Amino acid sequence: MRITKTTLTPSRLELVRPLKTARATYTRREGCLVQLVDEEGRIGQGEAMPLVEFGTESLNVCQQVLQGHFRRLDGQSLVDSLDAIEEAFALPTGGLGQGRGLRLRPTEEIPHAPAADHAVEMALLDLLAQRRGIPLCRLLDRAARPEVWVNALLTAEAPGELAEEARKAVAEGYKTVKMKVAGRPLDEDEARVRAVRQAVGPEVNIRLDANGGWSETEAVHAVDRLGWYGLELCEQPVPPQELRALWRLQRRAPFPLAADEALASPEAIPVLLGAAGGMPAARAFVLKPMVLGGLLPALMFARQAASLGLEAFVTSALDGVVSRAGAAHLAAALPSGRLASGLGVGSLFVREEPEVHPFQPLQGRIRLPEAPGLGLAP
Fold first, then answer.
1. Residue 373, beta-bridge partner list
2. If DSSP codes are grouped into helix, strand and coil, which group holds residue 215?
3. 224 labelled as ligand-binding?
4. What predicted TM-score, i.e. pTM, was given to this entire model?
5. Domains in the chain with CATH codes
6. pLDDT, tens digit, 9 for 90 and up, residues 32-83
7. What cofactors are annotated for this protein (predicted)?
């Protein structure tokens, strides 16, 4: 493929109400929409919505790196293959001019910018899938599933409001609900979890996300007390850099723990997976393509985890619809679809662009479009 035009458009999403996590309270998300046009007029789409707290670059750095990627892409040809796209983002090991295709990272001086890489990689994958006439999920894996289960993210603070929100989600067909914990007294979190369990009954999965907000001691108390409520799993209970604490906590917890923010650090990954014959630090992994630098790195990690008998699932980082479309295709291509993905967040925003699109959950599922590429109109 040859890239004939590149476009960068600022984007901003306002949340219906503030979303509080253990790390911060969010009222809006800002980023950039990317479009790449090939020599036959096809349009590939990508999105960058950096989130520094989760391990990405700042918005300013993201925009700078995107412009650099565009300069290197302009008028250049790229082999129509997944390998060529993956290699374009690889850091060089033996210098340039080796005849191995386009490199978007010509030197190691370019800042670490996973959100920028994610946007351009997705646009290239969208183009490649369109050129082959297949949905993006089947470009990633021929045996991709036609639909993915998603969880409902509960955003209320008070137990009564959380319970009502959970009942509404279950009535809409969701089988898994997720709530944010930590950043408040454990008594309050227990009251909130209890209210949700009483509201949804024993058959619905309850997933917690602490966003690394507990110390190891606090997490031990939380695991002991909240484990009584039949939890499906808890995402990132301790700070991401405390890998040994996560390892110890997983040995104690009566439910799986999932590493999330910890994956943003490449050097942590061997420890998380149990390198050198050790036990993995977690039993599941949260894949945020925006944080991991794209769909291909996320898929590679999921396959590595699956080879060890570990689960992985995809979530957004409060991204826009373009990012969530790519993430849904990735979720359909994962080795296992047992755990619901966290992609049903469109209703959290004041206004969706576009208002109607094929990646809105229905009955707790997203049905992947059969159209080539992302299946999302520009």
1. 135
2. coil
3. no
4. 0.93
5. 3-133 (3.30.390.10), 147-367 (3.20.20.120)
6. 999 999 999 999 999 999 999 888 999 999 999 999 999 989 888 889 999 9
7. a divalent metal cation
pLDDT tens digit sequence for 91-108? 654 333 333 456 676 555
pLDDT at residue 349, as a whole number: 85
Q: Is 235 annotated as a binding residue?
A: yes
Phi-psi region at 201: left, alpha or beta (left = phi > 0; alpha = psi -120 to 50)? left
Cβ(45)–Cβ(125) below 8 Å: no
Rounded to whole angstroms, the Cα distance separating 171 from 169 reads 5
**Which residues have a Cβ under 8 Å from the Cβ of 49 and sit 6 or more positions away?**
11, 29, 30, 31, 32, 115, 290, 317, 318, 319, 320, 323
Active site residue 180: yes
Distance, in Å, from the CA atom of 145 to the CA atom of 166, rounded to the nearest integer, reads: 27
pLDDT at 94: 39
- Dist. CA 225–CA 231, nearest whole Å: 11
Residue 172 is assigned to a ligand binding site: no
CA dihedral angle for residue 89, residue 93, residue 94, residue 96, rounded to 10 degrees: 20
Task: State the amino acid at position 207 in one-letter form.
Answer: R
Q: Which of 5, 20, 168, 288 is catalytic?
A: 288
Q: Show the tokens assigned to 141.
A: 């894996």
Length of the chain: 378
Those residues with Cβ within 8 angstroms of residue 72's Cβ, 6 or more apart along the chain or in another chain: 102, 103, 104, 106
Is 5 a catalytic site residue? no
